[in-house]
Design goal:
386 residues; mainly beta; 5-stranded antiparallel sheet; 29 strands; globular; WD40/YVTN_repeat-like_dom_sf; WD40_repeat_dom_sf; WD repeat
Length: 386
């Protein structure tokens, strides 16, 4: 499968009209059917696309406008489907609001407010039935809220500056990992009164025991990106200011001594990325300014693949390894679709290779492009592979 991702290229034949001209800031693909794409924009609009059905002439299934009865009024920084079904989703914005939505009715059924900014959130369903959302709310605490009861359960204290990134472990539903402006990555067991377990230490190349470290930087600057491998054994963290990508073995808490080159500086508050796996070997799909690059997490070095198409820095992405395809969003008014390039063959072969999706046609409203406005430039064609 990864060999197919090595051949990723911009699919100029798939047109993804804009949900709004402000561009995209958050994307999420449902984990159950891999069919429904949730999108948030810089202006606060939300949309749900059907990315697999050829039968629907308008695969934009729902559109929630900014500043409406339920809509956001600021940049949407994160969106996430409820893990067990697509009946609920959660969105958060830079004005400090976290909204829980009923998908079918497109209404807010719960809201958490009072945060300075929300840089990101993460949902976890525990075996006991609790549904917790962890919130990076623009301060040095991590806030935990129960979606079912609507209550704030508690806060995790330990960081000394604002929390920018967080991820629940896919291997342990009680383990939360957070990254902060204080240059640290902290591990928490949310069941415990003294929840902080330890900090990851960028200088640690020995077997680490699981005990609290009080002064262990994970990066030379702000930690603004975290992502796990699907088995939870590998964690990738980023520091865009220092142009660092670190890879951690979560069994030993050691940092792999892998150096990545070609990383461009970025002022992004948060960095979205994705680990792809093939035959036990991990690769990182990474937004490198306006380029989409693929790194070998074991070998490091320069990207094994560089793809160009966006004019503005990429802010969000989703990947479906089974299809396979990648969809990326940026400050550009259109989403871009990437899929493995294959030379054209017989018509039957081309038909078999077509991804089962026509992606959305924008609904007409006052916020879309008008005839008097200058159209956006077309995406730059082609990938630049190595």
């Amino acid at each position: 499968m990864l060999q197919q991702f090595h051949a990723l290229d911009l699919d100029a034949d798939v047109s993804l009209p804009s949900l709004h001209r402000s561009g995209y800031s958050a994307l999420a693909l449902d984990a159950i059917e891999r069919r429904y794409l949730l999108a948030g924009t810089h202006s606060g609009h939300l949309g749900i696309y059907d990315v697999q059905s050829l039968a629907l002439p308008l695969p934009l299934l729902a559109q929630i406008r900014a500043r409406g009865e339920y809509g956001h009024q600021a940049l949407i920084n994160d969106v996430q489907w409820f893990p067990l079904d697509t009946g609920l989703f959660v969105s958060s914005d830079m004005r400090g609001l976290v909204k829980v939505w009923d998908t079918n009715r497109a209404v807010v059924v719960e809201q958490f407010a009072g945060f300075r900014h929300v840089f990101g959130h993460g949902i976890c369903v525990t075996p006991s039935g609790s549904c917790l959302v962890a919130i990076a709310g623009g301060d040095k605490h991590v806030h935990l809220c129960d979606i079912r009861s609507g209550a704030r359960t508690h806060s995790l204290a330990g960081h000394t500056r604002a929390v920018l990134a967080l991820q629940w472990s896919p291997a342990n539903e009680h383990l939360l990992v957070t990254g902060s402006r204080d240059n640290t990555i902290r591990l928490w067991d949310v069941r415990k009164a003294r929840a902080m377990l330890t900090q990851l230490d960028m200088g640690n190349d020995d077997q680490a025991s699981l005990h609290a470290r009080t002064s262990a930087p994970a990066h030379s600057g702000h930690v603004n990106g975290l992502t796990f491998s699907s088995d939870g054994q590998t964690l990738v963290s980023t520091c865009c200011v220092a142009r660092q990508i670190h890879t951690w073995d979560m069994r030993t808490l050691r940092r792999h001594l892998t150096v990545f080159s070609g990383i461009k500086p970025s002022q992004a508050h948060t960095r979205r990325m994705r680990i792809l796996e093939s035959a036990g070997r991990p690769y990182l799909l990474y937004p490198n300014a306006s380029d989409l690059v693929l790194y070998d997490l074991w070998d490091g070095g320069a990207p094994v693949r560089t793809m160009r198409g966006h004019y503005h820095p990429i802010s969000c992405l989703v990947a479906d390894e089974a299809a396979p395809y990648v969809i990326t969003g940026s400050g550009d008014p259109e989403l871009l679709t990437w899929r493995p390039y294959r030379p054209e063959g017989p018509a039957e072969a081309r038909d078999e290779f077509q991804l089962p999706h026509h992606l959305p046609i924008a609904l007409d409203d006052e916020d879309n492009w008008s005839e008097d406005e200058e159209p956006a430039p077309a995406p730059r064609a082609g990938g630049n592979g190595r």
